[in-house]
Amino acid sequence: MVGRHVMGGLACLLAWSAAMLALYPFAVHHPYWICIQVVLIGMSGAVGTLLQIRLMDVAKEVQTLAAALNHSAFNAANALVPYLGGLTIAAGWGWTSTAWVGVALAIIGLIVWWFTVKDEQRTAAANLQ
User: What range defines the domain where residue 10 resides?
Assistant: First the structure.
């Protein structure tokens, strides 16, 4: 089902990620809740699969190049996100402040998603004319 609704799935996973990361600072001091919270946060990792599906759909005949660039983007994110989280810790906001970095990045992802959907709608309307 998600294969037919990739963009909707992406929006849901980004919203899920933002919500679960926002709950993290409140759950971290309770051992049972944090165990559940870590699993719930981990579920948002499925966004990588949906991004890959989306990329293969739009890449057409350059799928190999697109896949390589997708992996490069994930590697860049794997370096940037801990750096940003480290900045919040270095600023003295505490180690749970890293969750708010994740929330902000998920919201930025939702904003990019929204612009992408609007661009697709505008392109589809232009192709009908």
Answer: 2-124
* pLDDT of 129: 79
Helix 6-27 vs helix 47-59: crossing angle, to nearest 10: 160
Residue 30 φ/ψ region, left for φ over 0, alpha for ψ in the -120 to 50 degree band, beta for the rest? beta
What is the Cα–Cα distance from 105 to 28, expressed in whole angstroms?
20
Find out whether 60 and 48 touch, Cβ atoms under 8 Å: no
* 22 contacts 44 by C-beta, under 8 angstroms: no
Three-point CA angle 13, 34, 78, nearest 5° = 50
129 occurs within a structural domain:
no
Residue-wise pLDDT for 54-65, tens only, equals 999 999 899 999
Mention every residue, 6+ apart, whose C-beta is less than 8 A from residue 100.
21, 22, 25, 88
